[in-house]
Specification:
Helices cover 18% and strands 42% of the residues. By secondary structure, the chain is an alpha+beta fold. Strands 3-4-5-6-7-1-2-8-9 form a 9-stranded antiparallel beta sheet, covered by helices on one side. Strand 3 and strand 4 form a beta hairpin.
């Protein structure tokens, strides 16, 4: 998988309800996910993700476990209509501090606004070293998965199809 697409897939998986924190499960079916990287400009990246309850739960467990190991600080605050997560994560020699605000619901549509700043390592693509990066993820449920799609399938920008469950370490349990 190309590096930008791998980063995009990772961002969607991690920013969707796939955290070690107790976020609501998403409704089963096909989700359209639009990512806009405000810091670097360019057109939004739109992908589709087919999930069922088991896939969503597995992604939460797998990526939540990774987040728990890599992100010693994860604070979540809930209020009516929003969830706010502040985290500090370390990947190799890079420390990333993030602030994410989830609004909406996980049955029809939700939005995640993420501001992050990395120190050490390579800067985020399109971001100046030491400068914050801003991303908005807009997800909406579009109905049942399409014919020929199976849970875990992601249709990436440009039409490339990957299945998140076929990534190393992502076996159904």
């Amino acid at each position: 998988m190309h590096r930008p697409l791998a980063l995009a897939a990772f961002a969607v998986v991690c920013a969707a309800p796939a955290s070690a924190l107790d976020l609501p499960p998403r409704k089963a079916g096909l989700w359209e996910i639009k990512m806009t990287f405000e810091t670097r400009g360019g057109p939004p990246q739109v992908m589709q993700h087919c999930i069922d309850a088991a896939t969503d739960k597995l992604m939460n467990a797998h990526f939540g476990g990774m987040a728990k190991e890599s992100c010693p600080k994860q604070d979540m605050k809930t209020s009516p209509g929003s969830i706010v997560i502040d985290s500090v994560c370390k990947f190799g020699n890079t420390t990333t501090t993030s602030h994410a605000v989830f609004t909406g619901d996980f049955n029809q549509a939700y939005t995640v606004k993420i501001t992050s700043k990395s120190e050490g390592g390579s800067p985020m693509p399109g971001a100046a070293p030491g400068q914050p990066s801003n991303m908005t993820i807009e997800a909406k449920w579009t109905g049942a998965c399409k014919a020929g799609q199976k849970p875990g399938d992601m249709i990436m920008p440009g039409g490339m199809k990957v299945n998140i469950l076929e990534m190393p370490g992502m076996q159904r349990r």
